[in-house]
Amino acid sequence: MEQKQCFVAVDFEDDDNVKGYLYWYLCRFANVEEGDKVVAPLGRHNNLQQGVVRQVLFAYEDDAPFPVHYIKNIRNLVKADSDSLYKIVKKRELNSTVTMMEVLAPLVAKKAEAGQFIILRVDDDGERIPLTVAGYDRKAGTVKIIFQVVGGTTMRLNAKREGEYIADFVGPLGCATKTDGLKKVCVVGGGVGCAIALPVAQKLHEQGCEVHTIIGFRSKDLLILEDEFKACSDKLTVVTDDGSYGRKGVVTIPLKESIESGEKYDEVIAIGPLIMMKFVVATTKPFGIPTTVSMNPIMIDGTGMCGGCRLTVGGKTKFACVDGPDFDGFEVDFDEAMARSNMYAEFEQRERERCNLFKKEVE
């Protein structure tokens, strides 16, 4: 026998374009009441927006509210106070290709530590991607992520605005960076990897460690987070490949100079492109300075089940999502890791092209 279904009329009162107009939705929960805040898809591309329930109707399908074409799918309506909602409370462009977002995720913020990561989906049809926890505010319940717009999913994520929502935001995952007992550390960051290096440097600074930081970029236009690193570093060196800002060269040059000048580091922590981390290890190994690297291979589930993030470390297979992402740089097989990372280059290029077509369609 056919059962009555719950329909709700939503007013998106914060959107001046549709304020006062009611959109009908099938509702997946029966305890909804007038005045409840909900999040529902609105518009051609189903962007999630917050609205207020103005009417509730229990009816058979044949008696569904009119106009029928405004009724959305039952899976796409959720209460705004649900733990599964992740609101973008702040968005800032760090440079032309890198974006910072602060996402409301109280349970993740409560447990997150430097070096860990989250896995998110932009929308219900999206793929899962890992992003490092670039900061957190336990009191505000927010987690900071910084990402480079390089593929289809990051393009879709970057299209989100403040006040909109991310479908899934799971974490914290992975092992936190080990910082206890360290007295003097050199943190080396390259490109967008500086977003990962920053919370590590901040944590070391908070613990009273002497922090020397070296950050490198291809050019001045790609520089990010300089002021933030200044605030937590006893010594900061910025290098660019083309010499357009700071010193000209690569990060290994000032690192080697510091070591040869007599700096005694308990550890070097390198985070950035695989080739950069490989050469940082080549620089520190002759001096016997322990070197930690943060690995970022392909990940799918973040729990060690899929095996996509496997690495060879010390001759054994490890999984970056559960055994890392931090590893002893002296033991990582970088050549194998780089070969694996290039396996999907052709697919990623197709996704970029497809997402650019989507972007033009929206515009």
Structure description:
The model is unreliable at 357-363 (pLDDT under 50). A hairpin with a 2-residue loop joins strand 19 and strand 20. Among the domains are: 5-79, no CATH class; 86-173, Beta Barrel (Elongation Factor Tu (Ef-tu), domain 3), CATH 2.40.30.10. The strands form four sheets. The chain has a seven-stranded antiparallel sheet with strand order 11-6-7-10-9-8-12. A seven-stranded mixed sheet has the order 16-15-14-13-17-18-21, with helices on both faces. Strands 2-1-4-3-5 form a five-stranded antiparallel sheet, with no helix packed on it. The chain has helices at residues 106-111, 152-158, 194-206, 226-232, 252-260, 274-284, 320-323, 334-341, 345-362, and strands at residues 5-11, 22-26, 37-42, 47-59, 78-79, 86-93, 98-104, 117-121, 129-137, 142-148, 165-166, 168-173, 184-190, 210-217, 235-240, 247-248, 267-271, 291-294, 310-313, 316-319, 326-328. It is built from nine helices and 21 strands. Helix 2 runs parallel beside helix 9 (345-362), helix 3 packs parallel to helix 4 and helix 5 (252-260) runs parallel beside helix 6. By secondary structure, the chain is of the alpha+beta class.
